[in-house]
Design goal:
Lyase, Ornithine Decarboxylase, Chain A, domain 1; six-stranded mixed β-sheet; 2 domains; single chain; 18 strands; about 350 residues; alpha/beta; TIM Barrel; eight-stranded parallel β-sheet; 11 helices
Amino acid sequence: MSSLPTITVDLDALENNYRFFQKKRPSRKVAAVIKADAYGLGMEAVSRTLWRVGCDTYFVAFFEEGRRLRSYLPGATIYVLEGLPHDEFKTFLDYGLTPVLGDFKSLQTWTEKAADRLCALHIDTGMARTGFDFQEAVQIKQAFPTLGVDHLMTHYASGDDPISPQNRDQKEKFSYLKTLFPEAQTSLANSHGLFLGEDFCGDMIRVGLGLSGLLEEGLHQGSLKSAITVTAKIIQLRALRKGQSVGYNATWIADRPTRIATVAMGYADGVSRALSNKGHFYFNGQVLPICGNVSMDFTTIDVTDCSCNTLEVGASVTFFNNIETLSELALAGDTIPYEILSRLGRRCLRVYTKDF
C-alpha cells in the first residue's frame, strides 16, 4: 500500500456547494473558478462533476489551463484571467477560449484579429494587480467603439472583510464605468464577495474556494460541506531522550522523554516549511505538534501526549479536513487557506468518492 499523502475529494459535497451558491443568488449566474488545479481538488474531476449539475462557465488563470480544460469540456465557456499572451493568439482561437483583457496591446491584437469574437474586460477598481485602470477604461470606449464585450469585470480587494469601506468604493467606481458599456454583463464577486449583498454581485459570480466548502461557517450557517480531506501516513515511531534534537539545524530539542512520529508528507507535498515548529497534524481529534524543520518528504510530529493506542506505523494522520483545521494551519504558517490548498503537491494521491 502506498505511503504517499492522500487527498480525498467528496464530489457529492462539491455538488452541494455549487447548488448552495445558486440558491444563495438565484438571479445570478454562478461560474466556477478552477485555476491552480481547482484549488487542489483536481481540474478534471471538478469540471466534469460541475458540468453534470449544470455549470457551463469556468475561469482559469492561464491559457495552458484553459487548453487543458477544453479537453474535458468541449462545450463550456472558458475565460482566461491572464488575458491574451501575445504569442498565443492562435491558441485562443483554436481552443475557443475567451480572454479577460486588461492591457491595450492585447486589446489591439484582439480587435484586429478577432473582431467577430467577444471578450471580457477587467477593470481595476482597487487591487492594482491586473486590469485597466479607471482612466484607461474611459479611453477604451473612445478608442474601440465597436468592441464586443460580453462581461465587464472587477475584483474586490477586501471581499472577505464585509465592513471594509473599500468594497463600496470599488462597487461605486465600477458602477460608473458600467455606464460606458451598457451592453455588457457584469461580474464582481468571488466566493466571499457574494455575501456582501445583492448589489455587490453583478450578473455573474465567480466561485472558487467556496466550491471546496472551506469558507467560514458564519457566512453559510453550515450549508456548505467540506469537499477535501488531506491525510498522510506514519512511517516511523521513535523514542527520544531529553536533550535530543529533531530535524535539520536542530531547531527543536526535547525537553522531556518524547515520542516522535515521522509522517510521509513534506514541503514537496504542501506542508509549508513555515509550519516548522508551529503547525500540527491531527489524529482522532487530538492535535499533534510539528517538531523540527519540515523537510522535503517528511515531517516529524510530537505524539507523546496522544492517548490513542491505535497510533502506530501505518496509521493515517490528518493535515486538514474542514475550514477549522485549515484555518488553524493557515494561522500557524502566517498565510491564508488559498495558499495551503494551491501548494498541495503533484505526487499526492487523489481519491474521489465517486466516478466522474
